[in-house]
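FAQ: What does the model actually see?

It sees only this:
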Amino acid sequence: MTFRVKKVFRLVLLTGVIGLAYLSLLTISDFSLQHSTREALFLNLRVLYNRLYANTLNLKVDDLRQKANEILTEKFKDYSPPSLQYLRSDYKLPTKISIPQYFVSASEVTTRKPLLQPFDPRFTLSVYLRWIRENPGKSIPFHWSDWVDLSALNQYILLPDERKETCQKLFELTEDQRKQSSVLQIEQYCVNEKSFPLGYKVTGFPRAQSRENNVILAKSYLYSSFPSPSQLVFLTNNHGSYLVEINDRKNELKQSLLQNKLPEENFVSRDSTHVDVLDSYRLLIETQKPQVEYHDDPLQIHLDESSFDIDIDNTIMALEKVSKKRQEESYLSSLKYSKEVKQPKKSFREVKLLKSDSQRVFGDHHDWRFFNGLTINTDKQAIVLHRIMKSYLLFCRTHGLITWIAHGSLLSWYWNGMIFPWDADTDVQMPIRDLHRLARDFNQSLVIENIGHDMRGYPLNEMDFNGMGTYYIDVGTSITHREYENGLNNIDARFIDVQTGLYVDITGLAVSDEKAPGRYDGLRPTNPEPETNRINNKLSKLYNCRNRHFASLSELSPLVKSVVQNEVGYVPQNFCPLLKNEYRIEGMLEFSFNGYYYLSAMRLWVKASFLIDYTKNPGNWIDHHTRLSQREISVEEANAINNLTETDFANLLNDERVLREFLSSSNFTQFHEEQMSYLLSSRMKKYYLSLEKYVSGEQVGRPIWPDLFMNEIAVNGWDYEDEVRKANALVEIYQKIDSEASKAPIADTKNS
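And it is asked to produce this:
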């Protein structure tokens, strides 16, 4: 490995960039514009210089990648690390599964259907994709048990009626727990109903509970009470989207695949024995045109003032005069409610854990309805947050919704185009006009990510598999309110992963009556003095979310096409001032934060404890390290990390996590580094040429992290056919117990 860029060259380059920047400023005649432009430009140059200077060891990526592949090959000689399986060039994703034998025609039934079947998105999606291909324009049945893993409820479903669990037995807390935490009476969120398969129904948000109980409560709510989505939105890879209306939003078990006859109608009648989810996706896009067609993305989006203001009264009147779809009816009701209620209740409910739980703060990052255990600080966190942002950006582009990444997500993109490893959620913004369109057309929709990556245009194979993520769009009931008020509804909408409850926070920017920060005083008209904050903000082209984050039109516009998490998205071209206002200049300059250190040579955030352990004794370095508290690392420790050599970086690749992250992301982060040098120095022609070259290739849009379910298969050996057999055996066991000892007490199943 050799040095690619010398310090001397960097300084020469920087001098040239500054010279060009200065000459460009001289061409601007307006003094006030010249001043603001100069301030932003020199901020950009300071940031650019820091990135260039700090990269004292800019290794040839190809050399380091070759070394990483050699280490990967060596690891697979001894054993097959589950977390590295998807990096193998010969790894074939198991997209095909057998159809359970109980899905047969009535004349061929030899045994009755079981009361339950294992959740597997490959089966669910194959059935639905096949059905909508052959039944275009028709509505479809839906039950959450086919879309979310509810197997934790099996033990309760299989109990005979006389032995069903009660709400009180399952969810009662101790006196100390009730005193310490904000809890509800059980009757307020759970009712006993012996005739129902569970023996009870969860009807609403429970407030504080234990982790284990929160999982059961969430899954019980999905099983028994939570309405079906308004529609299904199947994304494709730059073809458009398929919109499928749900025929009945009532939560009814008869709508599940076990009872709705869709599997029998789709497969058994054709003598099928297997389904392949990737093949089902391919057949759909080859034979049926999407309802929503995909259009090319512009290189720039110039935001209009009208995007940040909306006349609610006129919107309501216009909707009342026309026939409306289901989503529009809901939108109209929401607008009326929002107008009438001056201090609206909190729209979104996050998981509330007991005060005795040392990790209770992490519950706030999960929507309570889809909670499946804490995912913060696990491998699932990185997988889900990466893919949820990818799918959100693709969803918005497909449907012409303007959005951009913001706050911590914008800052993490600045560094390497990825999400910070310590981030628990992601943030985006959109103009208020687009927020209202999201609410009108897509509120309470279930979005299914593009299953295939079909950029090449020829038949798909296992290497073209993308993922099977499913995301619920939830828009709050107070989007007509634009001021802070009681502070309970600062987030306007969420894009929620239904397998974990993790989400993207969506906020709408609009003209409001909030007072703008003093840094915008120069934009305010001086004569005459505006009568209200709203008029002032409108004249000054200042917009804010409900959490009082302000931005000017000149800071936001134009939005430039970029690549975020290896998916096409948009960022404000003038992002540096935005980040400086929110995180100070240090946020873009400091390489150490939150217990992590940024390795510019590899373009990765790595745990500081991991690096410090290595620098102390490279010869005895091991894979398992003690966790470093989130403290600032010392100057000596930082210097030791900065002095890592080419050999050291090669050694670090022996750690499975570093190896996995580097091999997964290095192509993209290398491109991002190039993009940032052009963007920060305002070399927009080169920026767009580089961007279009990357986007036109096969890599953009490919996931950096594996699909969550496929990762489960690789790591834990999930096998659908085996799970079907286990489920059938479990049913038989419970039936046998019931027949042999129907009057004998059964041991508590809560913790079995």
